[in-house]
Amino acid sequence: MTTDNRPDFNRVMQALNCEEPDRVPLGDWSIDILAKEGFLKKEVASLDDEIEFWVKAGFDFIPLSTDIMGLKAAPERVQGNELKTKYGKKVQRSWVQEHSGLITNWEQFEKYIWPTVDDADFSKWDYFDKALPDGMKGLLLCGRIMAPVWMYMGTETFYYALDDNPDLLEAMFKKVGEIQYGIIERAIEHKSVGAILVNDDIAHNSGLMIHPRHLEKYVFPFLTKLGDLCAERGLGYIFHSDGDCTAAMDKIVDCGFKGFNPIQPNAMDILEVKEKWGRKLCLIGNINLDSTLTLGTPQDVRAEVHERIRTIAPGGGYLLGSSNSIPNYVPLENMIAMFDAGFEFGRYPINLTKGEVEGKVSSYQAGPKSKEVAAETDQEVKDYSELLMNKEISKIIDRISVQVDSGIALSSVISEKLIPAMTLIGGMYQAGKIFIPEMMISASVMSQVLNHFKDLLIQGQGGKQGGIVIGTVKGDLHDIGKNLVSMMLEGQGFKIHDLGVSVPPEKFIEAVEELKPDILALSALLTTTMVEMENTIAAFEKRGLRDKVKILIGGAPVTQEFADQIGADGYAYDAPGAAMKCKEILNLPN
Length: 590
Ligand code: B1M
Description:
This protein is of the alpha/beta class. About 45% of the residues lie in helices and about 15% in strands. It contains 24 helices and 16 strands. Helix 2 (about 35-40) packs across helix 3 (about 45-55), helix 6 packs across helix 7 (about 155-165) and helix 16 (about 395-405) packs across helix 18 (about 435-450). The radius of gyration is 25 Å and the shape is globular. The structure holds CO-5-methoxybenzimidazolylcobamide. CO-5-methoxybenzimidazolylcobamide (B1M) binds near residues 201, 262, 485, 552 and 578.
């Protein structure tokens, strides 16, 4: 257990300035309450308990969120199912309903009673001013701008509005920016605030969520303004985004950020990040939440911390932490092992020898991205792909109608031109040439076109490729990726029945019995919910239904190896891959 727990925020500031402090500071800023209680062996009910945890664990700061999403009138939260945790207790998670947006048009924007800075509660900061021990500072969690905008608008409306409704989007960013900036101005009047951390996810595992030009227009100017404020006040300034942010790293530096978190190991190679940006940005995190912290032993955690400190900390500019947060599915002994190893190996000057601590150390693993778009693609397929991306629904319908009138079977136009056009778009997404919004838009246009020809298609029995029931497994609330998979499949002519998120095995069984789909598609984004895929397959076996449906699995932490291990019929890395896999499973042409 940690012994040296005298907080000294200067240590963090030195690390943020890429200098060597006396030791590597701890850098996590989101730790589940059950983990804190397990660590302290008592309930964490008051601010004093919170302070006690962060001090005893060895941190030099205490994080506290004062943010637009916590104000009255922010979008309502929905409740998830009760889940068992590593700590024996059951918890119910809540999250913002992102898909049915609160503000989807101008009328709603104008009628909405926006929260103001006066709705924010700064009493905890008042208390910190008096109660934080010497040397300790608060880490203000505020300043995110993209996440609140999409949470208010719903992801799909947000993605469409990027190009379709730029004025509304600009007004949304302005409004959210004003509120966040106002909160920050007030919060930093408190002497206890030492740094600001902006937790705004702009990327997923294989790249940026939206086109860099949209980030340039809507997000970075605000972050630069905040950066100037932090520089003026001598505050630390840290950016948190999951996923692969490589394409935005220079811009993140230009905004004035001094620290970057969490460098997710399956999205970015920390060695490369250190080499390219490590003189300008302090790196924070990277201890693998997907594997080591969640599934490894304390010895594995110790070995991984040793390796990160050995390679990243020399010269300064490293804060030790997880590659996202410490949720309640990280075993307590692993969290403690991470803290302890930080103290054991993190004293400057760092002089560690490779491999001197035994244990499984995870390293960067890139996903199968960057498939180049086939140059020899038929011109007509290319034309259709352009039309799909440009939302030219009527032009597509007219073009298909002309072909059908000339005697070509509708099903041939769809399977030989339109579906390959969608596949081509999928390839462009995989190659990082287009982003989530363009993919979503194309898939939705495709569905509308297929819908237009629905009657004709039914008569000719063409177009519909097969039935698919899809859902995110129990305990998992992530659905942006699952929705993209759904849309891509629908756009490719499959008939989709989407069961939503946190779907228990019984509900999948019911749907398969009732709808008799060809494929059951399961999505999971958390390492801990992958086991629900296995449970679902086991439930189908138990019910004697396993041979009635093919099961496809996917989601960021899922691998082919895992699919083989649990007896799934297929695995796909991403949405275009899912479409290809479904066709392969059903012996349909690609
Ligand atoms: Co969370 N989250 N999150 N999160 N989140 C991840 C997934 C994480 C990888 C971040 C990280 O480690 N740095 C991490 C999981 C780590 C792990 O266990 N392996 C994580 C965590 C830890 C958590 C919480 C526990 C955080 C906390 O509370 N401490 C919590 C859990 C809530 C819960 O589910 N019980 C949580 C919450 C949330 C939000 C609610 C804030 C939000 C979800 C909003 C929503 O979905 N409605 C969120 C988000 C946005 C993310 C990240 C940043 C982005 C996910 C995303 O939408 N990507 C994510 C980080 C990341 O991905 N690098 C992260 C865009 C989307 C297009 O990609 O979802 O990967 P993706 O889908 C891809 C492929 O995976 C694949 O195709 C899709 C399209 O190409 N795919 C399939 C998906 N399903 C498929 C099915 C298939 C085939 C392919 O066949 C059937």
